[in-house]
Amino acid sequence: MDENTIICRCSDVTLKEIRELINDGYVTFDEIKRITRAGMGPCQGKTCGQLIMREIANATGQNIKDVKFQINRPPVVGVKLGLIAKEGRKNEE
Amino acid sequence: MKQAEIVIIGGGPAGLCAALSAAKSGSNVLIIDKNKNLGGQLIKQTHMFFGSEKQYASKRGIDIPEILIDELFKYKENVEIKTEATAVGMYEDGIITVLEKEDNYYKIEPKAVIVATGAYEKFLSFPNNDLPGIYGAGAVQTLMNVYGVKPGNKVLMVGAGNIGLIVSYQLMQAGVEVKAILDAAPKIGGYLVHASKIRRMGVPILTSHTVKEAIGNEFLEKVVISEVDEKFNRIKGTEMIFDVDVMCISVGLTPLNELLALRGCEMKYIPQLSGIVPVRNENYETTVENVFVAGDATGVEEASAAMVEGFLAGLCAAAKIGYKPDDFIDRKNDYIKQLNNLRSGPAGKHILAGIEQIGR
How many CB atoms lie within 10 A of CB B102? Predict the structure, then answer.
């Protein structure tokens, strides 16, 4: 059943994959992100973030408030590199 | 680089009130909103609001943005508005980056910023939860009330909080059949006035029930639900099947504030505030100087509280950068009193227990 349960909709990561990784000892969002790309899609972890935190909390016996959060970095939505370069050049002039 | 006094990110109830409050104190404000229209989620709230007159009670949500924007127009020399503009980054040197429409990317250097970015819908994990036809309840409300699109014909609503109840009612108003509302909690979370209206229309509200799985090939065709015990474990043999083409997930909102997290504000997970929130003081200033927060971004509550928080944050941000009006203390105390009144009910107790944990 877990293989049909989608946790990260952007990158199609399933509950089965997440649970296997947690079993293997990957117990932070960022480790799971680096392996599966969960949280790296257009929504930047807004669907999977808390679901994964809860899975980690349940598996490790922690309270969800003690589970390490995901690290956010700009930009929060996709921006074309050309636009960033253009703005950067503006400052050099 | 574009200079600004106070940049307000998000033009929903909190952001509009923050802009109004800061402009009233004499500051220039720049509102950035990713949507075409200001008003945030108010623009789809066709129901009347509760609360008191100061927070526009007995008005319909959709009518409130116009009132606030008209009011804002009085300070039009002080107000600049950017719509279809998304704040995409906030950096250590205070600079904010913005993506306006598809192809205009620029930087702003503000003296202060108020983040009023609201909240987003939580999701559930169950088998086949990615079938077309499974939506957030708020998304369905936007489809119907903003875009005039009927989401489907037969709906199962998951979550008996206010959003679940109100959206169920609005679906029925739009001629969509609501088969049932379920909630894993043993009690209905939303206001009983909303719940009884729905019960009178013959829709069952099944408490202590949860989704077991969704079934369908190309799109949602059936949902299997089951009863849960007091520890939320499914009870075998209690399964029920619903033939529906839409399932709305309405299991709560969580604060949207990643801009504060990436700016370096101290963040905390507080269950009573529905997720990760910034640590802040009573002026709604975060642990980063001149970075303020208001509305659901600081903890999920109601639009009425978001508006008052906006007024308070706007007042304090303006004062911080040199626009302290003579009646500062009176205005501040009035906003605090309004918030205390709004939080005096049973739901408010919960919120106050959360707020106690975010003081810095």
Answer: 10
Cβ separation B130–A9 shorter than 8 A:
yes
Q: What is the pLDDT of residue B360?
A: 61
Instruction: Report helix, strand or coil for B91.
Output: coil
- Domain annotation for chain B: domains and CATH numbers: 2-120+253-356 (3.50.50.60), 123-249 (3.50.50.60)
Determine whether the interchain pair A83/B105 forms a contact, defined as Cβ–Cβ distance below 8 Å.
Answer: yes
- CA B21/CA B249 separation, integer angstroms: 35
The pTM (predicted TM-score) of the whole model is 0.95
pLDDT category at A93 given cuts 50, 70, 90 is low
Query: Which of these, B160, B153, B227, B243, lies nearest to B198 by C-alpha position?
Result: B160
- From the list B91, B127, B271, the residue facing A1 with the nearest CB is B127
ipTM of the complex as predicted = 0.93
In whole angstroms, give the CA distance from residue B309 to residue B159: 27
* B259 with A80: Cβ contact below 8 A: no
Q: How would residue B313 be classed by pLDDT, with cut points 50, 70 and 90?
A: very high
- Residue A26, token pair as written in the block: 């990957």
8-state DSSP, A68:
P
Interface of B with A in 98-157 (CB under 8 A): 99, 103-107, 120, 122-123, 125-130
Structure confidence by residue, pLDDT tens digits, B76-110: 999 999 999 999 999 999 999 999 998 999 999 99
